[in-house]
Amino acid sequence: MSVVPILQYHSVSDDPPEWAEPLTVTPRHFQEQLDLLRDAQMSVIPLRRLVSAIRGGPPLPPRSLVLTFDDGFSDFYWTVTPLLAARELPATLFVATGAAYPPGGRSSGSRLPAARMLNWRQVAGLDAYGIEIGGHSRTHAELDVLPGRQLRSEVEGCKRDLEDVLGHAVSSYSYPHGYHNAAVRRALRAAGWDCACAAPQAFSSTTDDPMCLARLTVRHDTTAAVFADWLRGQGARTSPAPPETLGTRASRLLRRTRARWPGRLR
């Protein structure tokens, strides 16, 4: 078994909103990281190819790596895509559909704070270019604390939103905040999603669970040394993850209580 880094990015910008700064990489650092991929002779593959290998498909090339981007910031269109295109690198973009909007119009609403996000024409253009478009819920809610009807709206509605715009099926998902549990995974399968990315700061592999693929989050303070370690398969554990801990379940209970009674717990 060889490790497969799935890198999770968010915004790539010199001027992000304050709330997004911790998860934003500058264009200069992003280019440096792409150069490190080249120098390390990494084979950047589509997410779907990893999922196929997990399910018994063709073996992966040596030193495989996957690039993913969450939320749907507009800088993916203007900054990221030209850099990927110049290097002929594939990527998956997970869109929170409530944050996207028609050209000249308004978004239908999300829990993400204000930021410059993609419009639907840009999303369709990226799809036509060859970027895989995946789902990231409608409102960027914490899915594992939602009652059943709201959960179904987030995972089924997101799929309808994307497929209505793109004109074809979509099948890859990313959990907002990385939060998921057995009920969330069942809801995704029932809605027709066949793989989903989490973010436990771990390597994926061909033995990973396709419904909770491990990723490594690239942050504003991810150093070149840490990034280089990831490319060598070092510095993080490898999924599948161990069973949920008592601490994880307690944290979910607290978040569920806060969601139901906002303002009661601080």
UniProtKB/TrEMBL annotation:
Report the subcellular localization.
Secreted
Cite the EC number.
Answer: 3.-.-.-
Q: In the record, what terms sit under GO molecular function?
A: hydrolase activity
EC class: hydrolase
Alphabetic keyword roster: Hydrolase, Signal
Q: Where is it mainly found? A: secreted
Domain NodB homology stretches: 63-266
Q: Which CDD domains match?
A: CE4_NodB_like_5s_6s (cd10918)
Q: What is this protein called?
A: Polysaccharide deacetylase family protein
